[in-house]
Amino acid sequence: MRGRQLVDYLGLAVIWGLSFLLVLRTVQAFGWAGAVAFRALTAGAVLVVAARVTGRRLTFGPWRPLAVVGATTVAGQLVGLSVATPLIGTAMAAIFVAIIPLFSLVIGHWWGVERVTAAGRVGLVLGLVGVVLLVGFPAVPVTGAFVTGCVASVLSAVAAAFGSNYARLHLRAVGSWEQTIGAFGVGGLLLLPVLLVRPVPGRPELADYGYLLALASACSALAYVLYFRLVAEVGATTAVSVEFLVTAVAVGGPAGGRCPGGHGVRAGAGAASPAASRSAPWTA
Q: Rounded distance, CA 99 to CA 132, Å?
């Protein structure tokens, strides 16, 4: 990766790594459906306003690919993350994002978007072993809620990996601003009807709206503009490998203690990340 791409990559790791506490607070205030719907629509609106203010011309192209990315990378991934985080804790949810690059590697190879080398296969196996070691021996009882959170995390990872490769394959000619606005607009609209059966649980406080705005502006609008640009420039698997660093930042930072049982998570977090990160090619 070149200089600017490396800055984008590291910036994403920090932004997303620190986002888990914001996710938890917004889900507690707005419910998982409200948190995802309002976050997505706010992120899209922020970018539309920014584009108007700066005079940036937006050209979206066909909407079907944007709808697929919105349904997977936005709605699917964020719903899974928002459901899982209150059930398994921010640290465990962060650990699960480390499997996104592994799924992306498999999907990309299957579609012919990315080539899996021998080192990549070894890294894939080591990465899976690392996640199993971290998740397979939890410090809390394995309850129905814990299992539900783990399943939601895995489905979230699959959706993210699918959407990233789909964007790489079908949205190369669409700018990262347009991809983010279109995908988040679709994702937010898909979740609005769910609020009829999963309404906002109570009256959010003023601070909760601040958390939602920060999550939408920094962790969605800004972050996904950087992310989709990386996907187009260096490939889906390389771009999504940032999730390894996201896990390290999240578990080693303020979110690290927010895991049922608490102990043992920071110490083991590196088992998934360094081993599997070698599976991601650093050139497109």
A: 10
Give the C-alpha separation, 158 to 13, whole Å.
19
In contact, 237 and 11? CB cutoff 8 Å = no
| pTM recorded for the entire structure | 0.81
* Residue from 176, 169, 138 nearest 262 by CA: 138
CA distance 111 to 167: 12
Round to whole Å and give the CA distance between 151 and 131: 14
* 87-120 as b/e: b if 16+ CB within 10 A: bbbbbbbbbbbbbbbbbbbbbbbeeebbebeeeb
Positions in the chain short of pLDDT 50 = 260-284
CA angle 132, 236, 157 (to 5 degrees): 35
Residue 168 Rama label (left phi>0; alpha psi -120 to 50; beta)? alpha
The closest of 21, 81, 89 to 254, measured between CA atoms, is 21
d(CA 168, CA 238): 11
At 138 the pLDDT is: 60
Q: DSSP class of residue 35?
A: H
pLDDT at position 211, please? Answer: 97
For residue 111, the model assigns a pLDDT of: 86
User: For residues 209 and 38, is the Cβ–Cβ distance under 8 A?
Assistant: no
Calpha distance 26→210 (Å, rounded): 9
User: Residue 68 is encoded by which pair of tokens?
Assistant: 């697929």
Give me the helices (H) in 97-205, please: 100-111, 118-135, 144-170, 176-191
Angle at 247 between CA 245 and CA 252, to 5 degrees: 100
